[in-house]
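Example record

The entry below shows one chain as it appears in the dataset: sequence first, then structure tokens.
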Amino acid sequence: MQIYLDYSATTPPRPEVIATVQSVMADQWGNPSSLHQWGNRAATVLEQARFQVAGLIHAPAESVLFTAGGTEADNLALLGIAHTFERPQHVIISAVEHSAINQPAQFLEAQGWQVTRLPVDSRGRVHPEVLRRALQSNTVLVSIIYGQSEVGTLQPIAQLGQIARDHGAIFHTDAVQVAGRLPIDVQTLPVDLLSLSSHKIYGPQGVGALYVRPGVSLRPLLGGGGQEMGLRSGTQALPSIAGFGVAAALAQQEMTQETQRLTVLRDRLFSQLADVPGLVPTGDLDHRLPHHASFCLTSGDGERVSGKTLVRQMNLAGIGISAGAACNSGTLTPSPILTAMGYGERAAKCGIRLSLGRHTTAADIDWTALVLKQVIDRSLSTLLAQV
């Protein structure tokens, strides 16, 4: 039995997406910037996809620009705002941001910018009052991740965004894990910039988008032909963008029913693993991504069994999970997310994540829980035998 439970890392492209990508590559391969009929056909495909992606977050189509992924969207949000200022200012992020936000923030620090990293509670949540107290007269940008990919916590984005807006600061959120799983309406949500990624919603890898609220000014990161409203030069990856559009449209149509189904399965998994000694859920259980379950071995010899060990053992059993965020899973250092939440160095190496998706069934959950219990028990028994 093969069970894939790493949908937060990437999702398998839907058949409708694959068919669209193939069709565009075969028949609508023109350059959207060209003025002849081949270009016009390509431009039509491009704008249809823009309309579909914009629809997922209830945005005007002209406010969505395509990027090479969520990482580029995050970089463009931070650096694009920063480059509009002649002198370094103040930026606020959280202590549980994705590296696609952390590293641009570090770059800005090296350029003389002041960066404040807001602390989180033991569940990984930023308290709105903490943001309010951190704001300064020169705070120009606040960036807080919407749904944390490693521990599943949802931030109070509406409150945080309103605090930033009242202060006059630009507010950005990385919504890569949330889009397509929970409703997003940028007409009512107080966000100025919002990042999306295709391959998290069953679209192609290598394409994302950044929502830019009308009136917000950015400086492009790339020089070139001025595509994407002059903010992202380079001929658009039309087949992938078209697939992204189809994935977004399908996600919007199916979201309500699928979110309810995944929430039930997620809670079933938490329930079945509740009696495993030392296996503690991480993140906020009440404010949580619907498809996401995460744990940490936090007591006794459990802390000597790393998350990566459990991932390898589960893989041998045909079950795909991850040790924290896939983008950082190649390292053996303590998770900075768990560390920020108050976990010790040893425990912060023991986190695992199981994320569910379209193909996950109740039988998958039951079998996974059984196997994971056996893997943990066997791993701990092996450790004790070595003592």
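Notes for this example: The first strand starts at residue 3 and ends at 4. The CA atoms of residues 158 and 189 lie 6 Å apart.
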